[in-house]
Design goal:
With 320 residues, the chain is of the alpha/beta class. Helices cover 38% and strands 17% of the residues. It has a domain at 6-42 and 131-142 and 176-318: Rossmann fold (3-Layer(aba) Sandwich). It has helices at residues 12-29, 53-63, 80-87, 99-113, 118-126, 157-163, 187-193, 209-213, 217-222, 243-249, 256-263, 285-290, 305-318, and strands at residues 6-10, 35-38, 44-46, 49-51, 134-137, 146-149, 154-156, 170-174, 196-199, 227-230, 233-234, 237-238, 274-278, 294-298. The strands form four sheets. It has a seven-stranded parallel beta sheet with strand order 5-2-1-9-10-13-14, sandwiched between helices. Strands 7-6-8 form a three-stranded antiparallel beta sheet. Strand 13 (274-278), helix 12 (285-290) and strand 14 (294-298) form a beta-alpha-beta unit. The mean pLDDT is 96.
Length: 320
């Protein structure tokens, strides 16, 4: 195959939609499959099983079995086992586990208990469907995200995000154990071999942030051929979720230019060479350029796979 070798840093629903578009764009170019490095910072143990929400969202999306209405889980899923868990007072009553989804979690947990690493588990999961991309976890270490609240409480990210809908004011996000973590096997090599690394329009704080915080990741990106990011902010608003609350907690304005500056220019020790901004944010291009990052204005609404593929094409072109 000809065409660019691509690595995508991704997480969440935005990452899943972008990865679908990237797969389509690369297929049209006759390019190799992308390697997608997926956030594992929002993973959690619940009812004795290991959940990896971002990995599952991207896997299900590429497999074509995701629930596009809810944005998470499997299409057509049922919740009989979840109801039984609640009857036993197990798990969290506000955290729904679908029956098909639980099948994934049980299989994963069993493989982990047998000694497979998260990388090995994901390789085994990928055998079931023709995903059209190689998925890697950001790390094999457990580095769940903990939210530190203004009142001093510490909540797992999933409780803060799902139960409280980010309504409790956070002051910091932590990933205990991340200082001793390392990129999962294959991640650094994939970045070194890539023609371009793309930062998906995922939550900059809790989806992309943990990946960048894994020791060795920023060094790998510093040596990459090119790094292009796609703004998750359109017209001064987050596209989905509560990323604005996360950004506010770390002192970053909810704007395309501010998020670009948060990532920083590679020339100044940051991450980015170029940054895709939405047409609605074209006026901010000068601010992005002032931060040492090349701005590229393009339509960024991922309404369907075709639109996402057009965004991926624009990101690939920006790497040139």
């Amino acid at each position: 195959m000809t065409g660019p070798r691509v690595v995508v840093l991704a997480g969440g629903v935005g990452g899943a939609k972008f990865t679908l578009g990237m797969r389509e764009a690369l297929r049209r170019r006759g390019a190799p499959e992308a390697t997608v490095v997926v956030n594992t910072g929002d993973d959690i143990w619940l009812s004795g099983v290991r959940l990896q929400p971002d990995i599952d969202s991207i896997t299900y999306a590429l497999a074509g079995v995701n629930d596009t209405e809810r944005g998470w889980g499997r299409a057509g899923d049922t919740e009989r086992v979840n109801a039984e868990l609640q009857a036993w007072g197990a798990g969290w009553p506000w955290f729904t586990l679908g029956d098909l989804d639980l099948g994934t979690h049980l299989a994963r947990t069993g493989w982990l208990r047998e000694g497979l690493t998260p990388t090995g588990v994901l390789e085994r999961m990928a055998r079931r469907w023709d995903l059209g991309a190689r998925l890697l976890p950001m790390t094999d270490a457990e580095v769940d995200t903990i939210v530190l609240l203004e009142d001093g409480r510490r909540l797992h990210f999933q409780e803060w995000w799902t139960r409280h809908r980010a309504s409790l004011a956070p002051v910091a996000f932590e990933n205990p154990g991340i200082a001793d973590a390392a990129p999962a096997p294959g991640v650094v090599d994939a970045i070194a071999a890539a023609d371009v690394v793309l930062v998906a329009p995922s939550n900059p704080v809790v989806s992309i942030g943990p990946s960048l915080a894994v020791p060795g990741m920023r060094a790998a990106l510093a040596a990459a051929s090119a790094v292009v990011g796609v703004s998750p902010i359109i017209g001064g608003r987050v596209v989905r979720g509560m990323a604005d609350v996360c950004l506010q907690a770390i002192g970053v304005e909810t704007s395309a230019a501010a998020v670009a500056a948060h990532y920083g220019a590679r020339a100044a020790g940051g991450v980015l060479d170029a940054w895709l901004l939405a047409e609605e944010d074209a006026d901010a291009a000068a601010d992005v350029a002032a931060a040492g990052i090349r701005p590229v204005v393009a339509p960024l609404w991922m309404r369907d796979v075709a639109a996402s593929a057009a965004i991926a094409d624009a990101a690939l072109d920006a790497a040139r």
